[in-house]
Specification:
7-stranded mixed sheet; alpha/beta; Rossmann fold; about 475 residues; elongated; 18 strands; 2 domains
Amino acid sequence: MSRADPFSTSADRGERYAIDYARPTRPQLAYLTSRERYLCWRGGNTIGKTWAIGLDIAHMLRGTSPFRPRPPGPVEILLSGYSFAQMDSVCRAVWEWLPREEVDPKVEYVKGGGFTGYKIPRVPLVRGPGEGSILRLATYGQGGQRVMGMQVDGAYLDEPPPENVYSETIPRLNERGGLFRAGFTPTPESPPLEYMQDEIKAGRLAELVTPYTQENVTIYGGIVPIPRKTQAEIDEQISRYLPDEREMRRTGDWFPKRSGRWMWAITDGLILDSDPLDDGRHWFLAVGVDHGTEPGKQYAGLVATDGERVVVLDEVWRPGVQTTTQEDAHDLLSMLKRNGLVWTDIDAWVGDRRTNRNYFGVRKCNTDLTVEIAKQLGISRERAVSRGLRISVPSKGRGSVRRGFQLINTLAKAGKFHIMRRCEGFRDGADKWEGDPRSSLKDPLDGVRYAVERFRDDRRLRLTHSAA
């Protein structure tokens, strides 16, 4: 029987249509049967998320799910991940579940390379119950532009999505009342996921959490249960994970568990009492701004480098106090003034992404801050920007926090990172922060980190002693 032959005997169909004979584990079944429109499935490694997500996509395309109804007729599904190489396992799962004769013969699955056949990757169904349905593929690296204007019946995100990808994907479901699914294991290299926690807490996103245990990888429904792993095998695998990511890999915890300070190399010996800018050397200056872990909070740090050393010169921060953008701009300009500087002396301005929170008018964003600084200077925003007040956004991709703090620790260990004694916010964070991303202790660390990363990445600023 040829691959394109749409006919088969009942016995033959049992071999060819494995999708009709799938036996999920209990967590997989909970995922497949969920009627939540927006669902995040978070769990340990090796619990079978990819298997179930591939099965779900195949059933959605064909309209054959015994677990959950879907709209009649052809559908369009979006599958997105970090890259086509990273998405290989879920592409393979979809390919294994789809009957070959129902797929456009132009399409092939290539191990490690995903789907081939179309310049813009897609998998059309040309026969069978899902005739006319299309699976479209995109990557997080393409950002929101790849999916802008698209309307789909379902969107599946494989691996933790950056906030800009999530926020652009949700509107793609509006017109058709589409289904949203995200399945992943957080890792230390994941992008910041606090926004997703906020979505879950606000009730806008349902959550399914599955630890990696023998019970959760056991297949039921046959004559006897079939565990895919023994608990001893699972425990041995987990023991090999690094301590700070062990619970992420086992239970799907959002963040690494660190014992002790992250800024372990910051010691009292690095504290300065005299201003190094008076030594006659040429210094590059940057202002790093973090919009805070809580609405209305903001930290700004003044940081300098001579190409080898980095010094945290000063800071403005009102811990525990909500501030307006007007107050933030005033505090920042006052900080420059007490250091004998004016705003045009600053070589680089780096500011956090805008906060999506807008509680009682306390939204924070770089544009608003720029406008208010210009207003207090008595010039237009356009004039300020043309003279150098361009607040760039720092890189906040996978693992950026860990790499940024590693850079500072390496500089500090080499004796090339110093802090003025008056920078109490940064010193307090360095002494006490142990990895909780929602702690306000992290705000000063992030503000300084943005500036140091800019020194490293901008050739004009010439930070040569880098551990990156």
